[in-house]
Specification:
binds zinc ion; Glucose Permease (Domain IIA); 3 domains
């Protein structure tokens, strides 16, 4: 039953019933619903965009922080990439070139990863692109680092080998300068003093007094130390890397077969044994089984001027003593 409302009428001094039409009541009802809906909407809009829960505020702050961190990370990666690129350049153009190994091509150094898309789990989020590109860059840097590290390992082993090679090659004179009277014969065709024929002289003759010490010209192992009819007392050293040296007509030798030798070790004394016409050392350098001119193997203790003098002596003097 609808409520009945009254009002006080001063004219009749009595309470009269308020009669409202259906139309007015409907209008009032609609206005109430519309106002309520409007307030509801305003409240919703305010609460969703301006008023944030403490959790939302914290999350947003964290997101900003993470984005900043990614920015810093990317800047650092740019620096690392620059350093790495410089290192790769030097590796290819200096280290690998020096040790005679081919440079590592760019597509090997910077090639991507084949097979399945390893970045698929990173897709589909708000900041997927940032995270994925960062992951890609980091992966590329890691791969470049591994390749560079392996390359340097290779260079280190080559350098060690090179060091051994440099120590092994014949590189000094077998007779000390103070003991050397002169080079009496160089490498080439010579008149043999005993056989009396033109004959290839496969070494250099160093004239020195009997008993002057003879030194090994590079690291190696004594292949033999023995007496032979032509070379007299001789020492033969294997240096490795295709090199051997012979020291002949010795008064006596002080090493034995199989003995390890360092450059500069004394191996015997100058003499006049075998087919020889005076005290001297016949010295040979043999490369891959063939005698080569020893004049090219004194670079370690001979400056340009001294070398020139030595070279002229070896070319001009052909008074072979063996
Ligand atoms: Zn000789």
């Amino acid at each position: 039953m609808p409520k009945v409302k009254y009002y006080f009428d001063p004219d009749s001094v009595s309470y009269e019933e308020i009669r409202t039409s259906r139309w007015i009541r409907l209008t009032k009802g609609l206005a109430f619903v519309a106002t309520a809906a409007l307030f509801g909407l305003i409240f919703y809009l305010l609460s969703s965009s301006v008023i944030q829960t403490p959790e939302e505020i914290a999350l947003r702050r964290e997101l900003r922080f993470v984005k900043t961190q990614y920015g810093v990370l990317n800047e650092k990666m740019t620096q690392v990439e620059a350093v790495l690129s410089d290192l790769e350049e030097r590796d290819n153009n200096v280290y690998r070139t020096y040790f005679e190994v081919s440079p590592i091509p760019d597509d090997v150094r910077k090639g991507g990863f084949g097979g399945v898309n390893r970045y698929a789990p990173l897709a589909g989020f708000d900041n997927s692109q940032l995270v994925e590109s960062t992951a890609r860059r980091l992966d590329a840097i890691s791969k470049q680092m591994i390749i560079q590290s392996k390359s340097l390992d290779e260079i280190v082993s080559l350098a060690k080998n090179k060091e051994k090679m440099l120590a092994s090659l014949p590189a000094i004179q077998p007779i000390a300068k103070r003991d050397l009277i002169r080079i009496s014969s160089g490498f080439g065709m010579r008149f043999h003093p005993i056989l009396k024929i033109m004959k290839m002289h496969t070494g250099i003759d160093f004239s020195a007094r009997r008993g002057a010490p003879i030194y090994a010209t590079g690291d190696g192992v004594v292949a033999h130390a023995k007496r032979s009819p032509s070379y007299g007392n001789e020492v033969f050293i294997k240096h490795g890397f295709g090199y051997q040296t012979r020291y002949a007509h010795m008064w006596k030798y002080t090493v034995h077969k199989g003995q390890k030798i360092k450059r500069g070790d004394r191996i015997g004394y100058v003499g006049n044994t075998g087919m020889s016409t005076g005290p001297h050392l016949h010295y040979e350098v043999i490369k891959n089984g063939k005698p080569v001119d020893p004049i090219y193997f004194f670079y370690k203790d001979t400056g340009p001027e001294a070398y020139k003098k030595l070279y002229q002596q070896a070319r001009e003097n052909n008074q072979s003593l063996d």
